[in-house]
Amino acid sequence: MVHPELRPFLEKAQSSLQAAEVLFEHHLYPSSASRAYYAVFVGASLLLTEMSSRKPISIKTMRIEWEHETVHSAFLNEFHARRRLFTKEDVDAYTKLREARENADYGIVELTPQRAKRLLTSSRQLLAKIEGLVEDAHQIG
Hints:
This protein is an all-alpha fold and 141 residues long. It has five helices and two strands. Helix 1 (7-25) runs antiparallel to helix 2 and helix 2 runs parallel beside helix 5 (113-140). It starts with 6 loop residues before the first helix and ends with a helix.
């Protein structure tokens, strides 16, 4: 069970994934990629919060205060290299999601349906894995 105060953030991650799926179905591939990344970012932020003594998710303001680079670095160094919670393929998927989101949000980029589908699948798989780890981290900690 996720800590009750953090449940809204997990729901936000799940909502972003649902939005990514709807956007994909409507052929809005860059927006789908952006939401797919955000779902994983929120989930990874939760995991980092659960495993860290620093708690930069503000329950009072209900805001995530981790920066994208910090979460990406933790995903690579803490979750993959140190703790072996994620595979190299998971890290690559997270990196591709982040790059696709940056291109979608800040550039004019064509995203094929096939690539958008792969990103959505990666997001779904990573978020499911993250949710399980957040649950485990809460039970342990």
